[in-house]
């Protein structure tokens, strides 16, 4: 890989992780939780991965300002500008622009890797090779490279990237050795209905969108100026010393828009690199069940001690110091934090928002009665 002196990483850690209630909550979202049962949070695992690509002091974490202290607790020793707190949630395009503005103050020629904080990666060596290839490629061409994972089922919780089978990205650049895993992007589709997802997979022309992006800072700036000029005008004037009131004003007036909708769907220099590593955005309980190891009865015991009898195909995550005894369950979610226990059928996980809302209301009524 090219010398990493000018390589930077932006970690986006502002999600609420509400689908993983009660383990994940507004106070402590999924990225700060040991969702994978390995003794480290998803943010910590992401940070460790990115340290394989660039120096530690070239990694910036963007999060909600209410979570900035939690980031510093989980990743000690970060410099003040390495944790950027957003005063308002405005999706990924403003988030990336904010961090890019800070990076531009220190390294105008930076190559930037953008990564979500709450995704699971399997195969660290392959991850490093793939991202190193993407870094080397964008340093030779004015491209934006996104990383696509091979879909294994018609999952409607993922975004899909359609790629061109006919022309590989490196062939377009007239390189002497075409890359077998780099393609031009045709379309992006966010969370399609199940029948459309089936058609996508059957065509063999789609990847899952991992949310990983690689681009040089000058390309990033030009692209924002072309497709999101209002965000470019506001954010690229920010500095390391921008005060909170100015930042609040910028965020309060900026559009809430994802980088996919704002840029990737419009730009004509986007290429997708086919990942050779395993990946999941771990967006739902079902996706966690799908990536985690199973016992002989098909149960995924992520955390805590579970003693099971006649129990099959369940996903269990409770505090590490807790024990649960399960008898006669099939296809259930059993999840708990220190205060709340959830037991529901896996097929009903789309009702978790309602469960969380109803519990909050009942707790409020109970506290008033007391």
Provide structural commentary.
The protein has 370 residues and is an alpha/beta fold. It is globular. It has helices spanning 42-50, 68-74, 92-106, 124-138, 169-172, 194-203, 217-227, 229-235, 244-253, 259-264, 285-291, 352-369, and strands spanning 7-12, 59-64, 83-86, 111-116, 120-122, 144-149, 159-168, 182-190, 206-216, 270-274, 278-280, 300-303, 305-309, 315-317, 323-327, 332-336, 341-345. The N and C termini lie far apart (62 Å). The protein has a 5-stranded mixed barrel with strand order 6-9-7-8-10. It has a 4-stranded mixed beta sheet with strand order 12-14-16-17, with helices on one face. A two-stranded antiparallel ribbon has the order 5-11. It is built from 12 helices and 17 strands. Helix content is 32%, strand content 26%. Helix 7 packs across helix 8.
Write a short abstract of this structure.
The protein has helices at 42-50, 68-74, 92-106, 124-138, 169-172, 194-203, 217-227, 229-235, 244-253, 259-264, 285-291, 352-369; strands spanning 7-12, 59-64, 83-86, 111-116, 120-122, 144-149, 159-168, 182-190, 206-216, 270-274, 278-280, 300-303, 305-309, 315-317, 323-327, 332-336, 341-345. It has 370 residues and is of the alpha/beta class.
């Amino acid at each position: 890989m090219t010398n990493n002196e000018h390589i930077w990483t932006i970690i986006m850690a502002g999600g609420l992780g509400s689908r993983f209630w009660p383990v994940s909550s507004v106070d402590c979202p999924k990225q700060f939780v040991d969702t994978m049962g390995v003794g480290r949070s998803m943010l910590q695992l992401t940070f460790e991965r990115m340290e394989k690509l660039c120096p530690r002091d070239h990694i910036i974490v963007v999060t909600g300002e209410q979570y900035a202290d939690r980031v510093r607790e989980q990743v000690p020793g970060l410099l003040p500008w390495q944790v950027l707190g957003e005063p308002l949630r405005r999706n990924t395009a403003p988030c990336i622009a904010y961090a890019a503005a800070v990076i531009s103050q220190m390294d105008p020629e930076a190559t930037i890797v953008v990564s979500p904080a709450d995704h699971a990666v399997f195969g660290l060596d392959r991850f490093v090779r793939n991202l190193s290839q993407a870094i080397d490629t964008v340093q030779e061409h004015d491209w934006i490279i996104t990383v696509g994972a091979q879909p294994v089922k018609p999952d409607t919780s993922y975004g899909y990237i359609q790629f061109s089978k006919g022309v590989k990205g490196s062939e377009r650049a007239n390189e002497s050795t075409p890359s077998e895993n780099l393609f031009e992007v045709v379309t992006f589709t966010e969370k399609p209905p199940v029948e459309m997802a089936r058609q996508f997979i059957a065509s063999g022309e789609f990847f899952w969108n991992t949310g990983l992006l690689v681009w040089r800072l000058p390309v990033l700036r030009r692209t924002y100026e072309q497709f999101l000029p209002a965000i470019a005008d506001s954010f690229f004037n920010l500095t390391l010393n921008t005060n909170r009131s100015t930042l609040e004003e910028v965020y309060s007036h900026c559009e809430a828009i994802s980088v996919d909708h704002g840029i990737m769907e419009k730009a004509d220099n986007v290429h997708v690199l086919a990942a050779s590593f395993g990946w999941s955005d771990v967006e739902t309980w079902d996706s966690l069940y799908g990536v985690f190891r199973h016992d002989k009865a098909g149960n995924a015991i992520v955390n805590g001690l579970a003693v099971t009898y006649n129990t099959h195909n369940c996903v269990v995550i409770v505090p590490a110091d807790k024990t649960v005894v399960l008898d006669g369950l099939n296809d259930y979610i059993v999840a708990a934090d220190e205060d709340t226990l959830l037991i529901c059928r896996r097929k009903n996980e789309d009702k978790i928002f309602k469960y969380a809302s109803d519990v909050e209301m009942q707790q409020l009524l109970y506290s008033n009665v007391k």
